[in-house]
Amino acid sequence: MSKPTPRVRMPATAKAGEVIEVKTLISHEMESGQRKDKDGNAIPRKIIKQFAATFNGKEVMRADWFPAISANPYQSFFVKVPESGTFVFSWTDDDGSVYASEHKVTVS
Amino acid sequence: MKVKSPAASVSRRDFMHVAVAGAATILLPGTAIAAPTQVVEAIAKITGGAALAEGKIKLDLPSIAENGLVVPLNFEVESPMSDKDYVKSIYFFAEENPTPGVAAFHFSPMSPKAAAAIRIRLAKTQNIVAVAQMSDGKFYTAKKEVKVTIGGCGG
Questions:
Q1: Taking a C-beta distance cutoff of 8 angstroms, is the pair B140, B54 a contact?
Q2: Are B104 and A63 a contacting pair at CB < 8 A?
Q3: Which among A29, B40, B73, B80 is most buried, taking Cβ atoms within 10 Å?
Q4: Measured between beta carbons, which residues in chain B are less than 8 angstroms from residue A68?
Q5: Which residues of chain B have a CB within 8 Å of the CB of A74?
Q6: Would B155 be classed as within a structural domain?
């Protein structure tokens, strides 16, 4: 499996205090730990266990994911933009890897 | 594989790319069967025995899911989301999945709405249970049954 690639869709500009929707998608097999290979051995669990969104370093929201999350997890949610700044979205893998995506939003 | 309603603004190409990859991940039957008591215990752990009230949670799930591997789940919890009154967390459980935990969302007053959309796997026809924890320590719950045609764990 190639390295998980995060994709984030959100506006680059907003009015002060505006509520915007963020849509995220990351390529990941989300191996549930329930499947078996051809020889009947259990395939170990390997999922993204946490998603977090921060704005200028402050946490906005966080989600814990369990094996019931579909492969290539999609998540959309809402943020508010009080001022110009940077959103950082990060996905934490079972193996400890963190995949991150940074997005600047300018308040006009 | 028939997939309904691609994510509104993720491009069709991106979506089809992941949808095909998702379809390739066919799951084999799970061995463990989770009793709903597991869910009851998990909820008791969250609430610490506090009462659960109905309402406040708008749970949007299909009544019939053709493909248990990708079931869209949308929710919104009614709340002003101010510094003093906001939704702290919301937890989701699938009663009949091999591991009933689905997801937990933790919000802050920085979140304008306690709402999100995700896609989940369901092993078979079952109830999805949501438990929301408010900043004032109150708990709300909602439940919805989803009929699954093809299970997300083999079936």
A1: yes
A2: yes
A3: B73
A4: 94, 97, 99-103, 120-122
A5: 7, 10, 117-119
A6: no
B152 CB neighbours in chain A (<8 A) are 70
The domain in which residue B144 lies consists of 12-150
Q: Give the integer Cα–Cα distance in Å for A70 and B117.
A: 12
Percent of residues, chain A, with pLDDT higher than 90: 82
> B28 and A7: CB-CB below 8 Å?
no
Residue B113, domain CATH: 2.60.40.2470
List residues of B whose CB lies inside 8 A of any A CB.
Answer: 7-10, 14, 17-19, 21-22, 25, 27-28, 30-31, 69-71, 94, 97-108, 110-113, 115-122, 152-153
Contact A23 B104 (CB under 8 A): no
At residue A96 the predicted structure's pLDDT band, cuts being 50, 70 and 90, is very high
In this prediction the pTM is 0.82
B38 falls in which pLDDT band (50, 70, 90)? confident
Which amino acid, B109? P
* Shortest distance, CA A22 to any CA of chain B (angstroms): 9
Token pair recorded at residue A92: 């934490």
Structural domains in chain A, sorted by start:
6-32+44-107 (2.60.40.10)
What is the per-residue pLDDT across A15-37, written as a single tens digit (0 to 9) for each?
Answer: 999 999 999 999 999 998 888 88
Task: State the pLDDT at residue B6.
Answer: 45
